[in-house]
Amino acid sequence: MSGPLSTLLARFPKLLDMRGDSQARSTFKKLGDPPPFEGFHTLIPPIYGDFQAARAALKGEVVILGQRHPCPALTPWDLPLDPGPMMRELHAFDWLADFAALGTKAARARALGWFLGWIDRYAAGDGPGWTPDIVARRLINILAALPFLEPVMTGQIRDRITGELPRQFAFADAVIGTEISAHRRLRSLAALVQVAACLVGQEDARLALTQELDGTCASTLLPSGAIPSRNPEALMHVLAGLIAVRDILEVTGHRCGGSIQKAIETVTPVLRALRLGDGSLARFHGGSGGTEGQLDRILASARVRKRPGEEPQMGYIRLHGGRTTAILDCARPQGGPDAALAHASTLGFELSTGRRPFIVNVGPGMSFGPEWYRNPRTTGAHNTLAVDKTSSSQLAPSRGSGHLPQPLATRPSMVTMSQAKDTSGMWVQARHDGYMVDYGLVHERRLFVSSGGDQVHGEDVLLAPDVKGERRFAQRIKGAEKLGVALVLHFHLHPEVEIDTGRLPEMIVLRPGSGEVWVFRQSGGLLETETSAWLDPTEPEPVATRQIVVRARTTSHSATLNWSFVRSEDKGPSLRDFGQGRMRG
Q1: Does one domain contain both 216 and 164?
Q2: Which of 56, 133, 288, 419 has the CA that lies 20 to 30 A from 200?
Q3: Is 267 in a helix, a strand, or coil?
Q4: Handedness of CA 107, 109, 112, 114 (dihedral sign)
Q5: Based on the domain organization, do 168 and 119 belong to the same domain?
């Protein structure tokens, strides 16, 4: 497409940024003169940063969401980044913690230069950094890094930096009501309570924000401990924010709301249920597994000993036996404000063995640019069954230049599940109707993990549930009755899993590490392997990996595929279980 329309669509993200600039400047104008900085009651505790990212910055490479960008200038504010997650992440100031983790004089000077460069260019309300969640994160990062910056903060520089705190806090307090995403609102409110507790003169705001956060916890997190987005990583960040609120209110002698504490007690076991054996979170609906050790640190700081039950947690079922853990998505993808990050992952699962990730979803693609916005969200990027290369939830068509992720246009109207446990292991049976409208079929999956963790069995069934479904399927294959429809089962392997295809088509031998050997078998289809990708924000680029694929065709409105992962050899934990690489501990 060319001409005026294509030019306008290509400029659409920049037009959105210009609109945001105008709104931020208008808000500052309404607020009038900023309140003066009066001092600190306390500061935010140091934040874990990445000293390697700081070293890269000193050598001329800026690391944003794991990706490296050449930066020959002394500040990153002229980098030609696409509008979207990358640019917003830069404006959240997480890099302050990276420089503080390095802790050298050069790191301190560079951090100060970036900070002052941002003030010169964006402090009036320009740029993409004025959404409630980004402002709140920026304030937390500044308050945590002030002791690190103190040696180079002369009188005038100190006034410029500390003057930004009450000014940006007033802005965030004024616009927090515009945040419609539940988890971002919770996280932003938690950050603003912490900021208000730190700043002298913000006692009234602290009280009001604490009450608002308490009410939001009661209405959003309780009694289930879940968030609407069903993003495990987002829930982890919410819990971290609530814990920080509790701790800073204790330090400053103030009371934490009852619903805030209750939410901490409720969310903690939910996150424990979503933890795989390698210490990472299951990666669903735009969430990554977290950085190494991050989840365990947060769970430890919660001071909650309650363990999860066997019931579903936030729509996920945890099956475990021995050293093997599987987490299965048994609920509808989210709609509403979070639908732009929702994945078509219904009945998909992730699997770990020991401290090793084994079967993984492709992962979140938002940090790798617009070309990775769509495919990682499709059903084929998850460990489940796809029909005719379609998805159980359909993504809306891309618009404009593709810089904005699109919501799900359709979702299953029904997802049901039942589960059982006996001495042999744990079972779950789940069903969704995401293929009903187009094919007249429902997908039913049965998944079993043995009590010893040495067997994982699955059965995937497609069937028409009634006469109406049978007619719809017949209409779908009309004119191609001998071909029918294609069925594809996907099992994406973690990049560190070694794969031996020498015994195809009967079986595939897999070695995830730790001396284990697993064998994959199937019946009902053709066994193959294909390329895949593993996406993680801690990696500079997508990591190439492989996937197991089972292909079949059906001319009937009923089809069944059976498959299994069976451990054929176990030499026990080896040194690899405690090694480095992508493993999380």
Answers
A1: no
A2: 133
A3: helix
A4: negative
A5: yes
pLDDT value of position 476: 96
* Same domain assignment for residues 74 and 185: no
pLDDT of residue 398: 76
| Any domain includes 208 | yes
pLDDT for 337 equals 84
> Which pLDDT does position 293 carry in this prediction?
93
Q: In terms of domains, do 297 and 380 share one?
A: no
CA 241 to CA 274: how far, in whole Å? 18
433 in Cβ contact with 392 (< 8 Å)? no
How far is it, in rounded angstroms, from Cα 445 to Cα 362?
20
Phi, psi of 72 (to 5 degrees): -70, -20
Q: Does 110 share its domain with 169?
A: yes
Residue type, 370: P
Residue 96, sorted as left (phi over 0), alpha (psi -120 to 50) or beta, turns out to be alpha
Q: How many domains are contained in the chain?
A: 3
pTM listed for this prediction: 0.92
User: Where do we find the tokens 């990445």?
Assistant: 50
- Residues 141 and 199 grouped into a single domain: no
The confidence score (pLDDT) of residue 34 equals: 83
Answer yes or no: do 186 and 174 share one domain.
no
> Which residue's entry shows tokens 């730790």?
514
Q: In whole angstroms, what separates CA 412 from the centre of its chain?
A: 22
> From CA 485, how far away is CA 466, in angstroms rounded?
19
Give the CA radius of gyration of the chain.
25
Residue for token pair 């100190």: 158
Asked if residues 535 and 542 have their Cβ atoms less than 8 Å apart, the reply is yes
Q: Residue 152 gets which letter from DSSP?
A: G
pLDDT of residue 338: 84
Domain containing 554: what range? 341-578
Which of 160, 178, 196 terminates a domain? The answer is 178
Residue 585 lies in a domain: no
Q: What is the pLDDT of residue 571?
A: 53
Angle at 543 between CA 539 and CA 544, to 5 degrees: 175
Chain segment 444-477, per-residue pLDDT in tens: 999 999 999 999 999 999 999 999 999 999 999 9
CB atoms within 10 A of CB 257: 21
- Return the SS3 of 500: strand
Strands of the 516-523 sheet, one edge to the other: 415-422, 425-432, 442-450, 455-463, 558-570, 516-523, 508-513, 498-500
CA 155 to chain centre: 41
Are residues 162 and 63 located together in one domain of the fold? yes
- List b or e across 196-212, with b for residues whose CB sees 16 or more CB atoms inside 10 angstroms: bbbbeebeebbeebbeb
From the first residue on, what is the mean pLDDT of each consecutive set of 10 residues in the chain (585 residues)?
43 49 87 92 94 96 90 94 86 98 98 98 95 98 98 94 97 96 96 98 97 97 96 98 98 94 98 97 97 95 93 97 98 90 97 97 90 94 97 85 77 97 97 98 99 98 97 96 96 97 92 91 97 93 97 97 89 47 41
Task: Let me know if residue 376 belongs to a domain.
Answer: yes
Domain boundary among 178, 210, 241: 178
What CATH number did the domain enclosing 573 receive?
2.70.98.70
In a domain? residue 318: no
Cis status, amide bond into 76, omega within 30 of 0: no
